[in-house]
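Sample entry (625 residues):
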Amino acid sequence: MRHLAANDYRTQSPHSFALHTDHPAAVSLKEIDNTLFINVIERLQAEYGDVYGYDNVMLSGTHTHSGPGGYLQYLLFDITSLGFVHETLDAMVEGIFQSIKRAHESTVPGRVYVSSGDLLEASINRSPTGYLNNPLEERLKYQHDTDKTMTLLRLEAQDGTPLGMVNWFAVHPTSMNNTNTLISGDNKGYASQLFEEAMNPAGSLPGQGKFVGAFAQTNCGDVSPNTQGPRCIDTGLPCELASSTCNGRVQNCIASGPGKDMVESTKIIGTMQFDKAWELYHNTSSSTLLSGPVQYVRQTIDMSNFTVNTENGTFRTCKPALGYSFAAGTIDGPGAFDFSQGTTESNPFWDMISGLLHTPSQEQISCHAPKPILLDTGEISRPYPWHPKVMDTQMGLVGQLAIMPVPGEFTTMCGRRFRDKVANTLTSGGGITDVVTVLAGLSNVYSHYITTWEEYQVQRYEAASTIFGPHSCQAYIQQYQTLATALLNNEVLAEGPSMPDMSYSVITLLPGVFFDGTPIGSAFGDVIAQPYPLAYTGETVTAKFVSGHPRNDVQLGGSFLTVEFLNDTTGAWQVVATDANWETSSFKVVKPLSGNINNNEINTRETIVKLEPPKPWWMRLFFGS
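Predicted structure, serialized as tokens:
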């Protein structure tokens, strides 16, 4: 049996849908690092033997900026989370494994349809000066400076029963800005909840229905959902265009909108994606039935030393390094100090500071030019590597659909070149007719951004974060053309270098919960502040509980909080909301003594929105101690 499974990991409870033909293959949609990839494969192989492997499992992420940290094994990614957090990795691995397992065990004969349409008002280009540095004749091919096309798959059983939907649309999940401290699927997670709520039976809890609606990521590198654009928050005037600064500093240059705050903006951008997906899903007359075999190919490459052939000669990619503009951040979340975007010259002071970690070699400086190197991560191995070098490259064919998981965030123009070149390879010489190419961003390994060579010269944030140097985009195009040729010719490629798993040797500075106690005179589960017993639609309800530390039990597949109503018919309490609902979006821990000695109160606030007529209700808290 050839098996295709899809997983959407937006909350603590991932879900999957599946179809089958005649040999195994899987696609899983989730934020990913190669240690996560390795651990998921090990779990799958322990359960199913060689049915699943690195060649036929694809993991991809939506790239929400409001998720848990500490599960990426390379040092740079874990600094802000005080090192590696094994509880996060374990929960993600188990959740993805259980999701794929459910998909595997519930496959039915079915059909897959593909359709596409444009969504115009949900995104802007956050680095327009970089985009404008691409050749004029190339830019004239396109009406917009971001990709506006949503590509959608409709999955149904042979008898017509709806099974699921997955779509790809380019927009960063950064509607929830960097002041948010709550776990959130952002605009794509919100869109997914809307779609699943509409397709599943009334009363289904988030992530619990049989129908799966996945809103996946593609070439979002320079694409922002904050459609009001960057403004100086102190004056209201537009930011300086080239550097995204206000009076020479990035801190006051912030993009927002289209709502009055980040929550409303998230809902607006999420609803736009939902509306377009709903239109495409139900407009069956414009969809195309996928037909043909399911195929896949994979090869790992050393992206720090990859030969790139261009019209101007032969070049090599570079060891990883980040430029000055990386520290400037973006209009979605500005950086610190005096860094600004568009910096192409170094500063003696910051060169001295970064040199305390490592002074880049002349070869590295020349390779990355015109990027001034701030962090020479590719030449630092103390206490272990700061950045990955081995990239996992894959391609899957489902009939005339080519899914291309890529290990990073491609910019708009890099993604366009990539899709066009690979499509040409797939259709050349009597290959696949009417091919549909999908770039699945942030897949299998995370390696920051990938810009075009022209965008790289401008050194906006995305270019400074293109860690393998100016020829990275062309290198990936070349590699995926190799994969496409191998698929057409039924070739088996050499595996390439192995991906390291350092999860057992990484540094953890965030200790476990050594002691879990309660305030004097209180016991676990006590209600410190009761809510008012009667609530009306739209009212905000607050309660405080004494809780164990959330790290004691991550409630995998469950919830830290439930809101329950008394069912008039059965006389039983019915769960109507969990911590995955947006109505319970203000769920927080207060008064921890430290990261490892706990004396917690849990403060919860719910906005009751579906209470007609008023009836008895309560909240419950779940925790380990």
